[in-house]
Specification:
By secondary structure, the protein is α+β, with helices and mostly antiparallel strands. The chain has three helices and eleven strands, in the order E-E-E-E-E-H-E-E-H-H-E-E-E-E. The radius of gyration is 16 Å and the shape is globular.
Amino acid sequence: MSKTGQSTKLSTIPARRGKSVSVQEGGVVKIVNTSGTQVVDTWAFNVSDASEFMSMDATRATLCKLRADVGDCYYSNRRRAMLEVVEDTSPGVHDTLMAACDNERYGLLGCTDYHDNCADNLKAAAEDAGINISWVPSPLNLFMNIPWTESGSLSFQEPVTRPGNYIMLRAKFNMLVVFSACPQDILPINGRNTPPTEAHFEILG
C-alpha cells in the first residue's frame, strides 16, 4: 500500500511467464483472473531473508484446512502470518497441494522438448528482482481446481472462476511476491481447449 493511498498501475503477468512485485507491510495485492480460466501460481518471500517463504505445509497445519478463507492468513515456513485474505470474488477454489510444474513434469506428460513452466518462471522473475531462488517451494495455486474426494483421489479440473474474478491479499511484512501465469496446456487446469492466457495484478492503496 503506498504512503499516498494511491494504487499502482495495473500490471500484466504475461501468458506462460512470471512476474514479481515488492509489497510493503500492510500493502494489498489484488490478483485478477482476467480470462476466468487462468491459474496463477503464487509465491512470497521475506525480502530481508529469502529463506523465509510462504509455505503451504505450514499453512495447512496452522489452519487445519486445505486453503485459507477470507480473514485467514497464509503462513511462512517459520510459522509467521504472511498474506491475509481480505477479499475473494471467485468461488474461493484455490489449490495448496500441487507442486509447481517444471520441465520434468512435462516430460512425464509426454513432452520431448523444453516446455515453459512455473518453476523456471519463479526463478527468472525472482532473479529480475535481485533474489536468487535455488529451489522451488510449493506455490499457492490461485484459481486452480483440484477436487479431493472422500476416497483420497485428486483430479485436475477446469477453473470455476469467471472473467474478472479476483483475490486480495494483505502483506503482514515486507515481501517479494512472485506470480506465474501457468503454462499448462496438456491438462485442463487452464480450461479445456483454451490456451494459457495473461492475468493481472495491482497493488492497492
